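--- STAGE predict ---
source: upstream dedup step, 1 unique chain passed
mode: sequence only
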Amino acid sequence: MKQEILHKASRATSGFAFGLLAFTSVGREGLETALFTVALSFQSSEFLTILGLVVAIALCYLIYRIGYRLNYRVFFRVMGILLIFFAAGLLSNSIGEFHELGWLPFGEQIVWNASHLLSQETEAGQLLHGLIGYADAPDMLQLGAYLAFLGVVGGFFLWMTRPTPPSPARTIEASSKAQPAR
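--- STAGE serialize ---
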């Protein structure tokens, strides 16, 4: 994959265009991160905001220090799974908000009430609510959408990122490279 990217980059007609693409991609991600950080800081407590910043700085440091030894296939698969849980939580939260507004007048039956175990009003409850869509009293539609999203999108993601067995040609080629020439 690296060789393919290097080959395509060397064939690029303009180094400036290639650099501009990299600059805008990184800049867009930075702006997006800043916007989400500001939005979350207005919604959560100061403790959670500071905790999030400390964790982000620690992750940046770790990636900087051990990034060259990182197995990127595993890293991006784990990050993809985490993002799927985040997206399922956003979907569940939006359905809850639509119920509160009265825009979804069906599926409002409460499935369970776990507020005595972990209330959404506690720090841990707010953290889980913001990250994975935890609700101490989810309704039928929220739970169904959450599980359906995880099943469909998560299943598709796992299927698309499954390890592929090596082809027989690659196995023969790799074994011939490992054998010394006689």
